[in-house]
Amino acid sequence: MNVKLLFSGVSSACFELENSLPYYAPEKFKVLLNGQEQYECESNVFSLYSLQPDTDYEVRVKGSSIEGALRFHTKAERCCLNVRDFGAAGDGVQDDTEAIRSAIGCLPPDSRLLFPAGVYLTRPQFLKSHITLEFCAGATLLGWTDRNAYNILPGVVEAADGKRMHFGTWEGNAVPVYQSLLTAQYAEDITVIGPGTVDGNAQNTDFWTSFHTYPTGRPRLLFFNRCKDVRVHGIHACNAASWQIHPYFSENLGFYDLLISAPKHSPNTDALDPECCTDVQIIGCRFTVGDDCIAIKSGKIDIGREFNQPAMRHTIHNCLMEFGHGAITLGSEIGAGVRDLTVSQCYFRGTDRGLRIKSRRGRGKNCRIDGVRFDNIRMEGVLTPVAINLWYNCCDPDRESEYVWSREHLPVDDRTPYMGAFRFTNLTCTGAEVAACYIDGLPEAPIGEVSFENVSVSFSPDAKPGIPIMENFAKQRCRLGMYFDNVRHIRLKDVRIEGAEGEALLADHYEKLEKEHFCEG
User: pTM value?
Assistant: First the structure.
């Protein structure tokens, strides 16, 4: 069985055991480094840490039916500094902010800052280009609990050439925002590696309880603004005040073998939200959070008009989504659209929805979503496996206006979004409860094409009613089959729906419906 190198840094590396099973390997297997057993693994993506820079290694995997090996070489570095040498106590009591800030300031390009085991209590920190932060096993970077320790960054600053520079953003608008625990602005070549933890500590603050009284948006855990060549590998990111990891207008990003977690009912704690980003890889990650697991965004209508920077060329592969509102979400801040999204070999377990698209009138004509492909996805206990919603009624002052909820055929103008082609292949969904799929387009701008091939959905016998999409005047559903409204072309091939109440297929306002081997039982 082939072993593929996903990432190799100065002291860590990430690999993929190539097979066709979502997230979990066919069996448990041993990981060996230069012939020495390191640990036993059960997932397709696995990692090694505490490696030496600029060194040749061989990784080998062994199981009863698994055998593979790969040679790789770690990156060279200029030097490695220990944060304790700058006065960091790592005892979870002393304020280590200034020690960490001094260490980052001293770090030469192409060098690494090491956090050995310990708890490093800190206020927000800025990162800079050409550095690596390594959180060793047992190391935790812990966020300060006093809201006043978090500076407020300006949303927009006018540059010398008259152009607008963004520094803060909240839910798709360039506005002032509390500084994130780790922030990088207009930087490049940044690496953050584990296996330690970055903990926002929001459970011990009022960030989750009193946020409605805040003067501005809550901080994220990691925020990368206008950055490129960023790699985040192996850390446990948890308990952010809002979104855990938020890359913004950034390019060439890799997120590998991460655990991102927050309590199930924590507000707005999305795991990973790339916004207006290009060339993003999210591979081998596990998510369990209080909101969307991955939410791909491209700003609201003003940002869409000003920059027209869509989210482009995102790859999500071999990930596990447990709990959360949506496993993979697009929007709702999606004013510049999404192009070329591929989700493959993933496992969704216990999320409210599998694919969740949130948009509506008012997101703008640049909100064009096209080229979305899902393949080889396993879902268990996902209430609604596919939900495409052009009537989203959350956020923004106009969310309950007649313009948003009217079912009339309204004029197409510069506020009207566009939905193109969506392709779903090789999906196995068990234990659904609300609907097999709920796809609801606009009458004046129907969704272009939706294709399901080799897809099976079965409902839980004790399913409970729920809301398939968030819209005004939403009705609860239970064991609803495949629902389509305002879709130009519907294509169903080798699709099986088991346990639906009533008809397994309900379609209205379409131009073409193709069915081949559509079964219900």
Answer: 0.98
Same domain, 513 and 456: yes
The last residue of one of the domains, among 36, 51, 73, is: 73
- Do the beta carbons of residue 201 and residue 218 sit within 8 Å? no
> Active site residue: 199, 257, 273, 291, which one?
291
Q: Residue 27's domain is classified under what CATH number?
A: 2.60.40.10
Tokens 């008009």 belong to residue: 305
* 291 belongs to the catalytic site: yes
Confidence of residue 149 (pLDDT cuts 50, 70, 90): very high
pLDDT value of residue 497 = 98
CATH number at residue 223: 2.160.20.10
Catalytic residue among 325, 396, 440, 485: 325
Q: Residue 282 belongs to what domain range? A: 77-291
Q: What per-residue confidence (pLDDT) applies to 214?
A: 87
Which of 54, 73, 92 is the last residue in one of the domains? Answer: 73
Quick: pLDDT tens for 115-146.
999 999 999 999 999 999 999 999 999 999 99
Shared domain for 509 and 397, answered yes or no, is: yes
Q: Which residues of 451-487 are buried (b: 16+ CB within 10 A; e: fewer)?
A: bbbbbbbbbeeebeebbbbbbeeeeebebbbbbbbbb
In a domain, 296, yes or no: no
Residue 494 annotated as catalytic: no
